[in-house]
Structures are given as structure tokens and as C-alpha cells.
Design brief:
The protein is globular and about 70 Å long. The chain is α/β, with parallel strands linked by helices and about 325 residues long. It starts with a strand and ends with a helix. It folds into 2 domains: about 1-130 and about 270-315, Ribonuclease Z/Hydroxyacylglutathione hydrolase-like (Metallo-beta-lactamase, Chain A), CATH 3.60.15.10; about 135-265, Rossmann fold (3-Layer(aba) Sandwich), CATH 3.40.50. Strand 5 (about 70-75) and strand 6 form a beta hairpin. A 6-stranded mixed β-sheet has the order 5-6-7-8-14-15, with helices on one face. It has a 5-stranded parallel β-sheet with strand order 10-11-9-12-13, sandwiched between helices. Helix 1 (about 45-55) runs antiparallel to helix 4 (about 185-195). The chain is built from 9 helices and 15 strands.
Length: about 325
């Protein structure tokens, strides 16, 4: 929790006593505070994506006056609308930057990360291991495109993917080679938010009457589905269409997990360890707090490299 001008601000999770909740982006694992929040701080894009992902009658309070607290949102490059939180404490003459999920490589969709110097950095710890290194996104993109063009000649293709962020990246990659993929209801709703914010995505869905769904389905096609449905759909559609069905997963998690699919691609919207070091050096903080599931391991690895790093604890931050 971050204290800014007597407001207690939670960071991407539900915390008792918080008066405001910062939701850096609209992935569900960062939205736990939404239902009970007294007021959320998020980008306009994130607010619209949250609306697209929740029930139509869901209500939440938006705090639009966060700039009066000395807070500024900076693009994080993760997905559409994803933001870092920057706070300048006038009383302490001290700045704090919370990264949220971020990536250093230029995203396929949306704006690249904006980096600002800060005295204290609270940094995401998703990929804390120095052994994990992602290849250049353009290299991964080319691998995906070449694989798809080869396999679609003899069958249908399904990518297992999150409906927000990764699905839109895959659509963009496929659109570049003239392929319009089939998407599910959730991805269709999210795509419309992306398009409303100026992103060019071509897709087809049974839930979008004008998308050319029937014509695309009459030939070999590419679909994007929930990761958990990938294996069962392969069996079902192989029987239904009497032809080969190829499956793929495009995720940074392929570096640390095995997937039951025909192909995997290390397409990530997170920074790996090396990119995190680049980010830290550009922020140039005096103190680093590692945040999230792997915070202890990340802090140890940063300390070994000479950085002043500790796992995040609210009481420790507020002592600084």
C-alpha cells in the first residue's frame, strides 16, 4: 500500500484499509479490489476494458482527481491502457514509481513504455530469474507467421490465449499476413474496445454479424480460444471438419512450463530479467522494492548484482 496525501492506495490487489485502489490494467489477477473499491485509479482504456470484462450491471467508482494527489500515470507497454503509477511526495521531496506489469520491447499494439527517474521503485517480479531471456518480438512474430502459413494449407489452426492482450497481439500478427482469425465472445467484446481507441484489428466472430464469419469458416481458418479449451477443441473439431487441427500457445510462460500443443512461441508482454535490469538502470532509483509472487527471489537476485533491493512491505516503504 502506498500513502499519498493521507490517502491509502492499494497496488493491483485488495488490501484492508485502502481508501483508493490502483488498477494498473484490466487483467483479472489485478482487479481483485474492484468489487469493494471506494474509488479506483486507472487509465481511460483500462476502465473501458474492465467494463467489457465485467457484468453489464457492475458498478464501480472512478477517482478522476488523482492528479491532485500528486499522482501521474505512465504507459507501461504491457497491454492497451496498462499504466505505471508515479507519485511525488512534496513533504519528503521524494518520488515513487510503481511499475505494474511492463515490457521494455515495443508492443505490437499500443504505446511503448514511458520511463521516469524515481527515488523509490516498486517493480514487478514476474520474471525474476536471470536464466529467462526472451527473444526479440519481431523474431517471434516471424516464426508464428511462417508456421501459420505452412499449417493452414492442410488444416485448421487454434491458438490458446488470454482474451485480453495476447489475443489482440495474435490478431495483429495474423492480419499482417492476410489472415482474419475467428474469436470467441469475450475476445470480440475486448476487440471492440481496442478499435474504439484507434487500434486496427480485423477478426471474425459469430457474435459480430458483419465480420464475415460464415465465409471464413468455409475454408481452412485460424481460431483463438481460451487456453483451457485447446486440447478438447482439437479433438472435437478434428471429428467435425474431418481434417487436421493444429494447436499453438504463444506466451512467455512457454519458457518455464510445458503445454500440450503442436507448437509454442515465447511471445510475452512482460520484461524478462535482463530487460528489468535495463528498466531499473533507466529509472535510477535509490531503493528498490520487488513486488508480486516472486518478490523474495527477485530481491535476492538484484542484491547479488549490487542493487539496494528488498521485497515489498508497506511498513518498510513508508519508513523511507
Amino acid at each position: 500500500m502506498l500513502i499519498a496525501n493521507n490517502e491509502k492506495i492499494s497496488l493491483d490487489k485488495k488490501e484492508a484499509g485502502a481508501t483508493i485502489d490502483f488498477i494498473s490494467h484490466a487483467h483479472t489477477d489485478h482487479m481483485s479490489a474492484l468489487a469493494t473499491s471506494r474509488g479506483i485509479i486507472s487509465s481511460h482504456q483500462t476502465v473501458e476494458l474492465i467494463k467489457a470484462r465485467t457484468k453489464p450491471d457492475s458498478k464501480f467508482n472512478i477517482n478522476s482527481n488523482f492528479s491532485e494527489l500528486g499522482i501521474k500515470l505512465l504507459d507501461s507497454g504491457h497491454i492497451l491502457g496498462a499504466s505505471q503509477l508515479f507519485y511525488y511526495d512534496k513533504q519528503k521531496s521524494q518520488s515513487v514509481l510503481y511499475s505494474g506489469d511492463f515490457q521494455m520491447q515495443s508492443p505490437f499494439i499500443g504505446r511503448p513504455i514511458e520511463i521516469k527517474n524515481a527515488d523509490i521503485l516498486i517493480i514487478d517480479s514476474t520474471y525474476h530469474d536471470p536464466k529467462i531471456k526472451f527473444e526479440e518480438k519481431e523474431v517471434t512474430k516471424k516464426k508464428i507467421q511462417e508456421w501459420v502459413l505452412e499449417k493452414i494449407e492442410t488444416g485448421n489452426i487454434f491458438f490458446g490465449s488470454y482474451s485480453l492482450g495476447k489475443a489482440q497481439d495474435i490478431i495483429k500478427i495474423l492480419n499482417e499476413i492476410g489472415i482474419i482469425p475467428i474469436v470467441n465472445k469475450q475476445t470480440c467484446a475486448i476487440n471492440k474496445v481496442y478499435i474504439n481507441f484507434g487500434e486496427d484489428l480485423k477478426y471474425a466472430s459469430v457474435y459480430d454479424a458483419d465480420s464475415g464469419y460464415d465465409e471464413i469458416m468455409s475454408k481452412n481458418f485460424v481460431g483463438i480460444v481460451e487456453l483451457g479449451r485447446l486440447s478438447s477443441l482439437k479433438i472435437e473439431l478434428t471429428k467435425a471438419y474431418k481434417k487436421k487441427v493444429y494447436t499453438a500457445v504463444a506466451s512467455g510462460l512457454t519458457k518455464i512450463m510445458e503445454f500440450n500443443s503442436d507448437a509454442t512461441f515465447e511471445l510475452s508482454n512482460h520484461a524478462d530479467f535482463e530487460q528489468s535490469i535495463e528498466y531499473i538502470n533507466r529509472v535510477a532509483p535509490k531503493k528498490i522494492f520487488t513486488y508480486g509472487m516472486n518478490k523474495e527471489a527477485f530481491a535476492r537476485n538484484l542484491t547479488k548484482l549490487g542493487y539496494n533491493a528488498l521485497p515489498f512491505e508497506s511498513k518498510e516503504l513508508n519508513k523511507v
